[in-house]
Design a protein that fits this description.
By secondary structure, the protein is of the alpha/beta class. The protein has 14 helices and 16 strands. The chain starts with a helix and ends in a 23-residue tail after the last helix. The protein binds pyridoxal-5'-phosphate.
């Protein structure tokens, strides 16, 4: 028995599940959780409260929650070779807010990238940075290689002497030039912070770069993008003082969280354990896939950014579709063909609602077992919609046929189980 409205909602969620099972999801910030992570996500942890740190809670009933959280912190430190981990931020943005609360007063200067350079809204004036009223200063950016300009940034850092130098992007094609900036960080005496929301799963697998070994003190992150965990957040640190670690923990609670979504924390712990085993193969394949996708699209006459640099070193590529009607139009046509992606600003864009780019991520397709040969097929399907302007409804049938062969999850303990399953209680 289900009442009318509840029935309606379940039907829409089931429709959504089916749609994604038949689609090619390429949003670079999404992924699929493992069956084990999903299992603990709907456990009794979802109904409980915990505040504070293991062993120092404000509520009773946390005996097993404490064991899980202690283990999660241990696994996170080990996987990322970090001295410090906090698994309580409930999202990447909340993790960023904790860093801001801990290390920046209103009016303090933080250096960062601009939105059109691929930054996330949380580091912009109208996001968390603005809410904290910090004085944010943007790095000079080199469009040619889609990265921070080293010489200009050295000059800027010496001139504005930021309290915090912040890095990390949402269109994150290449690692920031941290090694080249390390001497300047030391001279200026700033805290170095990287937001690794997009690339955490790659870092776990030894791809992209290794921020904590390249001068970064502190990583904030989401845990559901290339890192295939639950919607949650995390903080990691190395070379921080004990005082800085305590400040950060206090900023997380009571600063920006109360209870920290214990079910998601447990699902994160499971994913950390799985990634210890599977991250290396998964991350290597995700990076190979995105490069292949870039190369294939480029060969089909679609301008992918940075061809001379191999298009990308991450899971994502940026495509300039201004000659095919722009990002908004192309993303809609692709959705009509069951290829799910998003419009995105490219460096010269001034409008975020009518940008000239598309951002495409290969991580979820990697997670369901696609390899380089499938990337070639995906590129052809995209080209048929975007460039040849074939009827999306027609392309959709071929999208479904391809995806049907890849509906099981990989790179986890229960590899081979259905990736998009909806577990029904009532028929
Ligand atoms: C996605 C993203 C975030 C925000 O993550 P949420 O978990 O959605 O809050 C923060 N920073 C960057 C760079 C991102 O790409």
């Amino acid at each position: 028995m289900t009442a009318e409205d509840a029935k309606y909602i379940r039907e829409q969620v089931m429709n959504h599940n089916k749609w994604f099972e038949e689609s090619i999801p390429m949003i670079a910030s999404e992924n699929l959780m493992s069956p084990l992570a999903k299992e603990v996500l709907i456990s009794d942890f979802a109904d409980r409260y915990a505040e504070g740190l293991p062993g120092k809670r404000y509520y009773q009933g946390n005996i097993y929650v404490d064991k899980v959280e202690t283990k999660a912190v241990e696994l996170a430190k080990k996987l990322f070779n970090a001295d410090f981990a906090d698994v309580r931020p409930i999202s990447g943005t909340v993790a960023n807010m904790a860093v801001l609360f801990a290390f920046a007063e209103p009016g303090d200067t933080i250096t960062t990238c601009a939105l059109a350079q691929g930054a996330h809204i949380s580091t912009c004036e109208f996001g968390a940075f603005g809410q904290r009223a910090v004085n944010s200063v943007n790095y000079p950016f080199n469009e040619e290689n889609m990265n921070i300009d080293v010489d200009g940034t050295i000059k800027l850092l010496k001139q504005v002497k930021p309290k915090v130098a912040q890095f990390g992007l949402s269109v994150f094609l290449f690692p920031p030039p941290l090694k080249e900036l390390e001497d300047t960080f030391n001279e200026v005496g700033c805290l170095v912070w990287e937001d690794c929301a997009h690339v955490l799963g790659l870092i776990a697998g030894g791809q992209f770069h290794d921020p904590l070994r390249e001068g970064v003190n502190l990583i904030s992150s989401s845990t559901h993008k290339t890192f295939p965990g639950p919607n949650h957040g995390m903080l990691l640190g190395s070379n921080m003082t004990e005082e800085q670690e305590k400040k950060l923990q206090k900023a997380v609670f009571p600063g920006v969280t109360s209870s920290h979504h214990l079910h998601a924390m447990a699902a994160l712990a499971v994913t950390l354990a799985e990634m210890e085993v599977f991250a290396k193969d998964y991350a290597a394949q995700a990076c190979k896939n995105s490069r292949q996708l870039g190369e294939s699209l480029y060969e089909l006459g679609i301008p992918v950014l940075c061809p001379d640099l191999g298009f990308t070193r991450s899971h994502a590529i940026a495509v300039d579709v201004s000659e095919f009607g722009g990002g908004k139009e192309c993303a809609q046509l692709l959705e009509d063909a069951n290829i799910i992606c998003n419009k995105n600003m490219l460096p010269r864009d001034t409008s975020s609602v009518r940008p000239s780019g598309l951002r495409l991520g290969a991580q979820e397709l990697t997670r369901v077992g696609m390899k380089e040969s499938e990337m070639k097929e995906v590129a052809e399907l995209i080209a048929r919609v975007v460039k040849k302007k074939e009827d999306p409804a027609k392309v959709k049938e071929d999208v479904k046929a391809l995806k049907r062969q890849f509906s099981n999850i990989q790179y986890c303990f229960n590899a081979g189980e259905p990736a998009y399953e909806y577990r029904k209680l009532v028929p």
